[in-house]
Design a protein that fits this description.
Length: 197
């Protein structure tokens, strides 16, 4: 099964940022970094998974669509190191795990894919989980969309209108967060595998 994580935020992220105060100077790229680390740790526990991840955000006022190399290398499973690598990749001073991709690739990913949009305005996951898993069994493709504190990027919001999307609420943390991602993928994997992990 293919799992696509799509991280998107409507804020403007600044690169380079002050590494000593990155939580404030990067416009919360640290949250994005933690979510990517959590995603890697989760998908490694689920057998027969082909993981993918994309980031769609504004960086220095310019929209960027980036593909993430998943699973993250062991060396980058640390928030500080990951942020430094992200900063260098985005400035194109290196190539650790990010690369720019054409927008059409993201569109093709969402074709015939079960799409979950994690939002505080969605339905409780326990009321939709059975139907979601049933559909995943047919398509073998799942996309999970996470937005930031300022909601998802307008480009992603417009793109999602073209597809059938499940708006999922996992509680007060239904936004750009590793906790929301953990709750969602755990519930899906539990039913798919018929066991906890």
């Amino acid at each position: 099964m293919h799992i696509y994580l799509i991280l998107s935020d409507s804020g403007d992220h600044r690169i380079p940022f002050n590494i000593r105060s990155y939580a404030s100077t990067s416009n919360r790229l640290d949250v994005l970094a933690r979510t990517l680390i959590t995603y890697t740790e989760i998908i490694e526990k689920i057998p027969n998974i082909y993981p993918h991840a994309f980031i769609i955000i504004n960086i220095n006022t310019k929209i960027r669509t980036l593909e993430v190399k998943i699973p993250l290398p062991l060396l980058l499973r640390n928030e500080y190191r990951l942020l430094m690598a992200m900063s260098l990749d985005i400035q194109q001073k290196s190539r650790y795990f990010l690369k720019d991709i054409p927008v059409r690739l993201l569109k093709s990913v969402l074709e015939h894919t079960i799409i979950l949009n994690l939002t505080e305005k969605g339905e409780p996951i326990n009321t939709l989980i059975s139907n979601i898993v049933k559909n995943i069994m047919e398509t073998k493709k799942l996309a999970v969309v996470l937005g930031g504190h300022k909601d998802i990027h307008i480009y992603v919001r417009e793109l999602l209108r073209k597809y059938e999307v499940y708006d999922i609420n996992v509680g007060k943390l239904s936004y750009f967060s590793s906790q929301a991602l953990t709750i969602t993928l755990y519930n899906i994997a539990k039913l798919l595998l018929g066991k906890s992990f």
